[in-house]
């Protein structure tokens, strides 16, 4: 990981280097020459002040304002106490290494913030809108819903919309983490914040800028740090009470034993004063106060690079405990797009059956009809099609090249008297027949299904591998369709023919059984369930505004495998947090005891503070690296 220093960090680093060089020179001088105590004190004060004058200044200002018990106050008291006990090299070194830890902390936090703030680059500066046939460059906030905008190669798409004209490739990596460009053409949806790569496209806007995907992402990222996890709140409260207790403990350690052992002996006072200073240095809560929020921030940043937006550290904490995944079907596990799955002809070829069905359905806007037309992919000569009649709830009949054809469900076949048969496959069955002199002749049927997402089965398999106990699908579809999808994906359970309120009831039943439940959906009717579950996960690219607003986690690429990445990221983050807390407390506890017993010196105390801080930060940085499921 590359670190870029700010001007302030560079200035601090130069001070640290100067103080380190001076400290080494002073140590050499005092080793070679016998100096009086006051001269030794003065020359050791030089690197001490160069390294830590800002710490002393802040501690003094806080002291004036009544803000006594913080880490800078601890450092000031501990180091000045060490000077008072004639531990001059140790006092200067403690301040120097404390500043090294502060610099390291500043660099790590800055790097973590930059990993998230890179998302801010997706904000478009301008939009080119066509008004009265004239192109105008305006702020994206000034574009209304339904207006036509032009996006040229290399430009960011400023507002969500539908392609009205042109063909291009779009780079969606800033939002989804997906490196492969997406091809777009007429009627395709495009998302704000993505980059147009190859061709000029005209886009009809479907939202205002304030409601667009890019605006929502920026808002989510900016607000994510405000929602703290339980462990973060605990550490904050812990530090608030811990620091005064440490100061009182150090004071007792310095005074009480000295009064008991030898109130008139300077050596006794000096011995216990040094122990109290060690106690103060090692007790600084920096490692906990810094590394815990940094771990959460890094985890959220790492997830964001993968197109997974976690709205806060509290959701990271809950997500790590999820053991049950509940899915809406349409738009979540399936694409929500009907497609021809199979063709079973009778008397004619597959191509001929598809030709006839596409011609019959070419005048209909019904999703099933359009799926047949898309599957045909050829030119349909409308001049040869006449007398198209739609029969409500059954299908259509049309005259093609002088022959009457019927295209629809089993009810239409019964109406025309065709000798049809059902299909062994599950889905929407479109039967085709034609009128002959001998009566209706059955020509076969086409099976149409809502396409299952390419990575849905892999997502379910991975969820089981990482220890998720239950995978449940909730859908308003018929039992037969739901069972077919559940069997194909290997789901633990499914519930079909549900209303939105029924989905809430199903989730509540799982919650009442003690499961930690995450619900994933994309529709406006999923908002109540998303809010009721322990964690709500929304498909963000094409999901409804209500679903995205109600969810705790948003998947910008709409891929179910993103759920696996989100859970693994949360678990990794929580593991790092627990490691840092346990390590910091354990090391500090050991050195505190050793310091109180007079075994640990100031150098070991420096490791207990700065060393633990640096190791905890290095561990926290690991949370920034996106997880892999390959």
Task: Explain what you see.
The chain is of the alpha+beta class and 630 residues long. Among the domains are: 122-217, Calcium-transporting ATPase, cytoplasmic transduction domain A; 312-334 and 454-565, HAD superfamily/HAD-like (Rossmann fold, 3-Layer(aba) Sandwich); 336-451, 3-Layer(aba) Sandwich (Calcium-transporting ATPase, cytoplasmic domain N), CATH 3.40.1110. It has 20 helices and 22 strands. The protein is elongated. The relative contact order is 0.11. The model has no long low-confidence stretch (mean pLDDT 81).
Task: Summarize it.
The protein has 630 residues and is of the alpha+beta class. It has 20 helices and 22 strands. It starts with 6 loop residues before the first helix and ends in a 9-residue tail after the last helix.
Note the topology.
Elements: H1 7-32, H2 37-64, H3 71-84, H4 88-117, E1 127-131, E2 134-138, E3 148-151, E4 161-165, E5 168-171, H5 173-176, E6 182-184, E7 189-190, E8 195-196, E9 201-205, H6 213-223, H7 230-261, H8 266-282, H9 286-305, E10 308-310, H10 313-319, E11 324-328, E12 334-345, H11 350-361, H12 367-376, E13 385-391, E14 395-400, E15 403-408, H13 410-416, E16 428-436, E17 439-452, H14 456-465, E18 470-474, H15 479-489, E19 493-495, H16 500-512, E20 517-521, H17 527-532, E21 535-539, H18 545-550, E22 553-555, H19 561-596, H20 602-621
Parallel strand pairs: 11-18, 11-20, 18-19, 20-21, 21-22
Antiparallel strand pairs: 1-2, 1-3, 3-9, 4-7, 4-9, 5-6, 5-8, 10-22, 12-17, 13-14, 14-15, 15-16, 16-17
Helix pairs in contact: 1-2, 1-4, 2-3, 2-4, 3-4, 3-8, 4-9, 4-20, 7-8, 7-9, 8-19, 8-20, 9-19, 9-20, 10-19, 11-12, 14-19, 19-20
């Amino acid at each position: 990981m590359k670190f870029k220093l700010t001007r302030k960090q560079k200035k601090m680093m130069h001070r640290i280097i100067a103080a380190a060089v001076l400290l080494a020179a002073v140590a050499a001088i005092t080793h070679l020459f016998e100096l009086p105590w006051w001269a030794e004190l003065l020359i050791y004060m030089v690197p001490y002040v160069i390294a830590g004058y800002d710490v002393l200044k802040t501690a003094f200002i806080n002291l004036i304002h009544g803000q006594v018990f913080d880490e800078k106050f601890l450092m000031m008291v501990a180091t000045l106490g060490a000077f008072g006990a004639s531990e001059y090299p140790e006092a200067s070194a403690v301040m120097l290494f404390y500043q090294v830890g502060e610099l390291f902390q500043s660099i790590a936090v800055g790097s973590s913030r930059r990993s998230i703030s890179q998302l801010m680059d997706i904000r478009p500066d301008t939009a080119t809108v066509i008004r009265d046939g004239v192109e105008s460059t305006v702020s994206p906030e000034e574009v209304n819903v339904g207006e036509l905008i032009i996006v040229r190669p290399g430009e960011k798409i400023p507002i969500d919309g539908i392609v009205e004209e042109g063909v291009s490739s779009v780079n969606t990596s800033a939002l989804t983490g997906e490196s492969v460009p997406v091809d777009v053409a007429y009627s395709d949806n495009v998302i704000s914040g993505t980059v147009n790569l190859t061709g000029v496209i005209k886009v009809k806007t479907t939202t205002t800028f304030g409601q667009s995907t890019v605006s929502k992402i920026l808002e989510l990222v900016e607000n994510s740090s405000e929602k703290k996890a339980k462990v973060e709140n605990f550490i904050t409260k812990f530090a608030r009470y811990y620091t005064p207790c440490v100061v009182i403990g150090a004071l007792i350690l310095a005074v009480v034993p000295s009064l008991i052992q030898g109130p008139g002996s300077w050596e006794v006072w000096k011995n216990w004063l040094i122990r109290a200073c060690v106690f103060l240095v090692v007790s600084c809560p920096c490692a906990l106060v810094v590394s815990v929020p940094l771990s959460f921030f890094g985890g959220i940043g790492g997830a964001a690079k993968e197109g997974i937006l976690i709205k806060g550290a509290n959701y990271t904490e809950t997500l790590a405990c999820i053991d049950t995944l509940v899915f809406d079907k349409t738009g979540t596990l399936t694409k929500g797009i009907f497609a021809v799955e199979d063709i079973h002809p009778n008397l004619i070829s597959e191509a001929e059956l598809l030709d006839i069905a596409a011609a019959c359905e070419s005048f209909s806007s019904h999703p099933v009809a359009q799926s047949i037309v898309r599957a045909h992919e050829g030119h349909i000569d409308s001049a040869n099609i006449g007398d198209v009649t739609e029969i409500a709830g059954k299908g259509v009949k049309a005259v093609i090249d002088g022959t009457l054809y019927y295209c629809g469900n089993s009810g239409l076949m019964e109406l025309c008297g065709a000798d049809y048969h059902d299909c062994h496959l599950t889905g929407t069955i479109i039967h085709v027949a034609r009128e002959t002199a001998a009566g209706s002749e059955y020509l076969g049927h086409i099976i149409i299904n809502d396409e299952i997402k390419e990575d849905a089965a892999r997502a379910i398999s991975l969820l089981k591998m990482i220890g998720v106990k239950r995978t449940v699908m909730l859908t308003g579809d018929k039992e037969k369709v739901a069972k077919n999808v559940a069997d194909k994906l290997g789901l633990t359970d499914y519930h079909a023919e549900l209303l939105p309120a029924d989905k809430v009831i199903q989730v509540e039943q799982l919650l009442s059984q003690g499961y930690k439940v995450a619900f994933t959906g994309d529709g406006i009717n999923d908002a109540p369930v998303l809010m009721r579950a322990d964690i709500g996960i929304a498909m963000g690219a094409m999901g409804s505004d209500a679903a995205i607003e109600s969810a705790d986690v948003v998947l910008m690429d709409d891929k179910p495998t993103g759920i696996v990445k989100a859970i693994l990221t949360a678990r990794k983050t929580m593991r790092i947090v627990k490691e840092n807390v346990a390590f910091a407390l354990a090391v500090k506890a050991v050195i505190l005891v050793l310091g109180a017993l007079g075994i640990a010196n100031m150098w070991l105390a420096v490791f207990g503070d700065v060393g633990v801080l640096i190791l905890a930060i290095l561990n926290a940085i690991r949370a920034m690296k996106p997880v892999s499921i390959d």
